[in-house]
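Hi P.,

Sorry for the delay on this. The queue was packed all week, but I finally got your sequence through. Input first:
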Amino acid sequence: MSVDSELIRKTQSIVLSHSKGLATTFYQMLEDTYPESKILFQSAKMNVQKMEFERAFYHILSLLDQPEELQKYLHDIGIRHMTYGILAIHYPMITQTLILTLKSLFAEQWNGDIEKNWKDLIQTILKQMLNGVHSVDKNYNNPPVTP
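Then the structure:
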């Protein structure tokens, strides 16, 4: 992982302090920026979806120092998302929206180093999720993402 884990740990408290707003902000920004994304969640109960998103996000942060456990968890999430119909072509809009969400939560504390490291972390997360999908479906719609 080309992520400065120490910087992520130092800054994750900012994210944790917005725990109730993270998912709400993310899904609102996703819908505003990519209206076509609404179809991805049409059968989801959004209150449950938001809780699951936050739970997964914080669990990922808790596993940063346990790379093998993190990789297994991310592979499982990727496989689960494939069963929901999420395609690799959807991942870039998720990435961009998550960065915008974090930027809004960090506000004036956001800077180039923080942005680079969170982007690197998110790219690593998505790469591992897609690699999980490819481990069970070699013919998945797109090749694995490389950061």
